[in-house]
Design a protein that fits this description.
Elements (H helix, E strand, L loop, with lengths): L1 H43 L1 H8 L6 E6 L9 H9 L5 E6 L27 E5 L6 E3 L10 E2 L5 E4 L11 E4 L5 E3 L11 E4 L5 E4 L3 E4 L4 H8 L11 H4 L4 E4 L1
Parallel strand pairs: 1-2, 2-3, 3-5, 4-6, 6-8, 7-9
Antiparallel strand pairs: 8-12, 10-11, 10-12
Helix pairs in contact: 2-3
């Protein structure tokens, strides 16, 4: 009887040890690829590391050039790096050489949106020509002074609201749609040049043919960004929700 009990106890101990070893092996297998994936991700985001390193340099404007692949999913990291910089540290960000970036858009209520909203350290940005479709996502970049819209962009959706230091901008010929919040609050804006000036309409309840040949008048109207205009401009465009080209 005692021998049977001893055998049973020994078998139970061996079974328990086997279960523990199996669990440990599974845990090890589970964590190893996660660590590899995270390592690969951090190595890919060299631009984020370069931006964060500027925090130690003190006030000034610094050029950061990104190369390689910077995809749409990388933006939470880049955006948070820019937001983390102390006051007085400004970034001239060159993304012209990157691949994988296809869109920038206004926030959809998630931190995973690919945009630069409220990146107050951003003073200048150069975008790649791979960006097409609607462009948005620079609202609240108070110190942004210079940006060139890529030629493939077809519309501006709440793009540059409250970019208070933006002074001038050119609208490429492929842009066919601009909403009335795209330049709202750009108090320093004095020139908006349209490369294509024909067949533009202001749209609210009806459509009205408008003239966009005067860059200074364009800026005066677009930076107001609402349906209420002063008497010097309201007669030229009238209230609108957006303008479009036919």
């Amino acid at each position: 009887m005692k021998t049977s009990r001893r055998k049973y106890t020994t078998m139970a101990a061996l079974c328990t040890m086997a279960v523990v070893l199996t669990v440990l092996a599974l845990v090890g297998c589970k964590h190893e690829p996660e660590e590899d994936t995270q390592k690969e991700l951090r190595e890919k985001l060299q631009v984020e590391k370069d931006i964060r390193a500027l925090a130690e340099k003190g006030a000034g404007t610094y050029k950061v050039t990104a190369t390689g692949t910077v995809g749409n999913d990388d933006f939470p990291y880049i955006r948070q790096a820019l937001r983390s910089l102390p006051n007085g540290v400004l970034v001239d960000l060159d993304l012209s050489q990157v691949t994988g970036l296809t869109e920038l858009k206004a926030s959809s209520g998630t931190e995973h949106s690919n945009n630069f909203e409220s990146c107050r350290s951003l003073s200048k940005i150069t975008l790649p020509n791979t960006i097409t479709g609607f462009l948005g996502g620079f609202e609240g970049c108070w110190n942004l002074t210079s940006i060139e819209i890529p030629e493939g962009v077809t519309g501006l959706s709440s793009a540059f609201g409250w970019c208070e230091k933006l002074t001038e901008i050119t609208i490429p010929k492929n842009v066919e749609w601009i909403n009335n919040k795209s330049f709202h609050g750009c108090t320093s804006l004095y020139s908006v040049t349209f490369q294509e000036t024909s067949n533009w309409y202001a749209v609210k309840e009806t459509e009205q043919l408008i003239t966009v040949t005067n860059p200074e008048v364009n800026a005066q109207i677009l930076k107001l960004g609402t349906d209420n205009y002063d008497t010097t401009t309201s007669s030229q465009w009238g209230p609108f929700s957006f303008i479009k080209r036919k």
